[in-house]
Amino acid sequence: MKSLFFNGEKILDKMRRSAYQSAAKQSPYRRCLVRVSLFCAATVLLLVSSAFAQRISATWKGQSLGTVLARLAETQSECLWLDRRVDIGQTVDAKFREIPFQQVLEEIARGHGLGVARVGPCWYVGPEAAAQILPKLRKRARDSLNKIPAAQRQRWLRMETVAWPRLSQPRALLEEMLAKAGIALEQKELIAHDLWSANQLPPLALLDRVVLLLVGFDLTCEISDDGRLCRIVPIDHSLEWSRNNPLRSKRKKRTTRSTPNRTGALAEKRFSLQIENQAVGTVLQQLAEQLDLQLVWDETSLNAAELSRKTLVSCQVTKASLDELLRSIVEPAGMKFTRKGVDVEVHARR
Predict the structure, then answer these.
(1) Is residue 289 a contact partner of residue 251, using CB atoms and an 8 Å limit?
(2) Does the pTM exceed 0.85?
(3) Are 91 and 62 in contact (CB under 8 A)?
(4) pLDDT tens by residue, 298-318
(5) Nearest Cα to 133, choosing from 122, 117, 114?
(6) 239 Cβ partners below 8 Å, 6+ apart?
(7) What is the CB neighbour count within 10 angstroms for residue 302?
(8) How does residue 261 score in pLDDT terms, banded at 50, 70 and 90?
(9) Residue 160 to residue 139: CA distance in whole angstroms
(10) Please, what sign has the CA dihedral across residues 4, 5, 7, 8?
């Protein structure tokens, strides 16, 4: 790797001598352009050499994942955002020799069922599904800024360093960051209570900080048309990537007929889901749209029992049938359901 760096230095030196010899007979304006060009070339060479220089040789055996990642970030001067759902007590047994930082990080994450995503100068490490959808959430949030006034857009894109002490609460952190920019926060109760370790981030846009903080709660943000309101909403996991439509939904045209083939397919399908403190109505609506279910709410029984679609629920199921999945969602809200094929009615417990 040193040879690459030194070759770059030799190339730059030759460029410098040749350029100055040529510019000696040129006007001051030309000489200024030469200096600017040399500066740009030097910057590119330094970036390239730095990227190749970040190669790691290390052996870890029986060390905790949290310790390994913290040490890795410290020695490589990198910023890691570790998702709150990651079990940092897992052990790491790995050996690397002259491997780039990104590859080391990805292999460690993969070995623990995690994924990696880049957000500005930060490396996000978290559940694989979250790491895959994070770039799309960030892009959608940034695209939504195109419709708001320029002055307000700058508030969302302003780069700032942020630090917080041990035992900080993420909900309070988010409120503070947004309040500093004059932005109101809606549905903050969706953020579960949690206590975080001390941390410090490099310069990062407010929008990126918001997206990173919320993804750990399976949430994201919607920005009002005037840019003055941040609304917290559950992540739509049906998002997919497309060349022609960078962000689209896998929702199909809804049918109103329950065919035998459709009913049989639903009976055989198995589902895995993990949600925390999300509105039962929002969760069921998204599920209905993804599975082409006909969802009906028995408002009479729900109102009589003083039950609300906004009730927050948490559940975790693995390889569950559709009925088991629906039961795990509605029961924590004090509700029940009846299903006939694709028709699902939600009502109060009787």
Answers:
(1) yes
(2) no
(3) yes
(4) 888 888 888 988 888 898 888
(5) 117
(6) 133, 136, 137, 140, 247, 248, 249, 250
(7) 19
(8) low
(9) 19
(10) positive
CB of 11 closer than 8 Å to CB of 45: yes
Q: Where are the alpha helices (DSSP H) in 123-272?
A: 128-144, 150-157, 170-180, 206-215, 260-268
> How far, in whole angstroms, is CA 165 from its chain's centroid?
23
| Residue 212 near residue 119 (C-beta atoms within 8 A) | yes
Average pLDDT over residues 143-169: 93
Q: What is the mean pLDDT of residues 259-282?
A: 75
On whether the CB atoms of residues 285 and 295 are closer than 8 A, the answer is yes
Residues in the chain: 350
The alpha carbon torsion through 202, 207, 208, 214 (nearest 10 deg) reads: 120
Angle between helices 28-53 and 2-23 (to 10 degrees): 180
Q: Which pair of tokens denotes residue 212?
A: 């990173």
DSSP 251: P
In the chain the beta strands, taken as DSSP E runs, fall at: 55-64, 79-82, 91-100, 114-119, 122-127, 159-164, 184-186, 199-205, 219-223, 229-234, 239-240, 248-249, 271-279, 294-297, 312-320, 335-340, 343-348
**Angle subtended at Cα 5 by Cα 37 and Cα 46, rounded to the nearest 5 degrees:** 40
Residue-wise pLDDT for 202-250, tens only, equals 999 999 999 999 999 999 999 999 999 999 999 876 554 333 333 333 3
